[in-house]
Design a protein that fits this description.
7-stranded mixed beta sheet, Glutaredoxin, two-stranded antiparallel sheet
């Protein structure tokens, strides 16, 4: 079951595509955070969604965007450089899918994260949550409305 709106966001520390640790707690009190879980780097729907996020990045001013998948930091770096993503991509590779599991968006049978999106406020409370099924692209307009509604 996915993390629900109004609940405390599960804490985590993951490595980014530069192999640097990134903790959700490091944004507490300073920035809202948009977590975008996706199945795999270099896959069609995932790339389309993240490229749209890149192209409309100005709509997320004041929000730290973090992409999360079970890919290794090395493949994420190659993908980020290829697509010119200006937000961190985090590796939930090991323990495999542990953060996606904590958010209720890990497909254990397939070994990947599903398309889960969570907007977390500066106090660490989930203000928006959406989970899409396999092969079902997300409508990012809902994310923008949730961001606009933040205090």
């Amino acid at each position: 079951m996915a993390v629900e709106v109004g609940s405390k966001a599960p804490e985590f520390t993951l490595r980014d595509y530069n192999n640097q640790q990134v903790s959700l707690a490091s944004f507490r009190g300073t920035s809202n955070v948009l977590l975008v879980f996706y199945p795999f780097a270099f896959s069609g729907i995932c790339q389309g969604e993240l490229c749209q996020l890149r192209d409309e990045f100005g709509d997320y001013a004041g929000v730290q965007v973090l992409g999360i998948s079970v890919d290794t930091p090395y493949s994420l770096k190659a993908w980020a450089q290829q697509q010119n993503y200006q937000f961190p991509l985090l590796s939930d590779f090991w323990p495999h899918g542990s953060v996606a599991s904590a958010y209720g968006v890990f497909n254990e049978a397939a070994g990947m994260a599903t398309r889960g999106t969570f907007l977390i406020d500066r106090e660490g409370v989930v203000r928006f949550a959406e989970v899409n099924g396999p092969g079902e692209p997300r409508d990012q307009e809902a994310w923008k409305k949730a961001v606009a509604a933040l205090p």
